[in-house]
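Student: Please help interpret what follows.
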Amino acid sequence: MLTRTRYQFGSLRLKQRRNGSEAWEFRYYVDQPGGGRKRQHVTIGTREKYPTEALARKAVQALLLKLNAEAPRAELEVPSFDTLLNKYAEEEMPDRYSTRKSYESIIKTHIRPKWADYPLDRIKPMPVEQWLRALNLAPKSKAHVRGLMHLVFTCAERWCLIEMGKNPIALVRVKDCTKRLKRPRVLTVEQFCAILPHLKPTYRTMVIVAQCLGLRVSEIVALKWGDFDFNNRVLLVQRSAVHCRVDFVKTEYSHDFVPLDDDLAEVLLNWKQQSCFQGDEDWVFPNPATEKPYWQEGIQKKHIKPAAEAAGLGTGIGWHTFRHTYRTLLDETGAPMKVQQELMRHASIQTTMNVYGQALSSTKRQANSKVVQMVLKPTVSVQTNEKGADVAAP
């Protein structure tokens, strides 16, 4: 005989604690394996944290969603979007540090202030679209906000909090979401070389790697000497680091071998000789104060931007400028689009217009070498004050 699953709301009460303060205690039932139900209780928070019962009950909604996962849909109380966000943060937030921090920032700054108190069935496509339109963000950033809301509602479908196929964000549009408000800054070879004399050897070498290989800065600061095979002139990009948190690379396509031109290999081997950290498991560019990867924002703010300004290039130059420049220089070499896609390690066809079949390793190496030669051939003699040594840099 089938039994009807019951929806429980639990009970909430203020309980006096031994230290004299009051706290909200939530009591509920848990089904036992052999049949029957057992009462459980959990402390939600103090009276100071939740002054009213309404606020305390709002805090337990995520727990109620778990308890009533199999309750009949018609009996369910419609939870607020805030409850859904809390459940998503607890169970579905990405593990990758940089992605998680980005999602948390979008939720905290944009989504939660506007939609937290709305019941799920009160969030409709047109109000969301109008709200996005009014946000003071670039179209691409608005698309990220919209995409995250769609993802959260997709989880709500899977958890049976809304009907399947009734994701309201599916009908929300973001106009011109693929357009940039500003064109990315791209440097000429001469402009790139003009920056180098104004950088200390550590940051100069990092910038040369960025320009010659097109790596993301999170990948550069996470390089270890064991990633390099100098005999076969290849580098395996296999990790990234953001704020000293070492993680996977951005996509599966980013985890790949990239060719090392002879001249770039020489630059790196010279840097290795100067470094105190030369083991396979040592960082290529460790912060000497912590012996951990650098925070890339600090290098950009304190070194790259001032160097660009000192070179007369103005503002707006950062780490990603070198990646954009690398892509432009690949174009100038006449490299096929498929080769460019693989050297950039792009996941999407949209980014580098794929379609051409698997690029041969020799073709990729030739295209990369042309860029390295363009960057490293103009030689600039650089005088540095570090340890009183003269360092030759391009």
